TrEMBL record:
GO molecular function, one term: 5-carboxymethyl-2-hydroxymuconate delta-isomerase activity
Key words of the record: Metal-binding
Pfam families: FAA_hydrolase (PF01557)
Protein name, as recorded: 5-carboxy-2-oxohept-3-enedioate decarboxylase HpaG1 subunit
Statement: the UniProt record of this protein carries the keyword Metal-binding: yes
Keyword Metal-binding: yes
Gene3D superfamilies per record: Fumarylacetoacetase-like, C-terminal domain
Organism, as annotated: Paraburkholderia diazotrophica
Fumarylacetoacetase-like C-terminal domain boundaries: 43-243
Amino acid sequence: MFVIHDHRIHLEGEPLARDVDAPTVSALLADGKICRSPVGGAVYGTLLNDRAALDGLGDAVHASPYKAPPKAPVLYLKPRNTLAGHGAQVVVPDDQHGVQIGGSLGIVIGRTACRVSVDRALEFVAGYTIVADLCVPHASVYRPSVRFRARDGFCVIGPAVVARRHVADADALRIAISIEGERAFEASTSTSIRNVARLIADVTDFMTLSPGDVLTLGVPHGAPIAHAGDNVSIAIDAWTPLRFSMTSKEGEER
């Protein structure tokens, strides 16, 4: 079981995550503290779950090799090396092209989920978190190269996991991305083709999700680009925003 009573946050330098209330999360981060990812399970990204993203492909969805829109969720793995937390510095591999900043709702699984029905799907959710699903801009859709999505630090999660009981409707949450303090993008989870319950049901029809795993609802169409030196903030509804910065390889410390 992966149980959250309120808000789960894992400060850098502390061996274990804490379960605290929302004001405490804000207070802990007020002086610039950085965090680890508040979850440690597998993270699965979802492609083409946004109506505008699918519509934006136009006739390309009918081209070879698939010749039709996807009939099942299109997933990809964000491996362990990509995981980072609030306050992270993420290296931009090629600043000419920058990095696409995908802001997504992360669905945190609370107990083993296998062949779950839509009606019961939310019973398997421990909570929700903000996921910055980063990638190198690219044109391939169905088979994105690992080097585009699995760079070090390309999955920033947090700053906290919000317990499910605090989220009245996960399918009607506002997502906002700011770069250098300027609003760069706005979206809503309401534009998803599969809502949270349907996505869980469809994914667990062919694979088991374990406690602590994260399934993203998917990146909305039109995600902005950030470059080295940019500070990024992703907010979902009134939750404490997830903040991180982009840096060049030259400024990287090992």
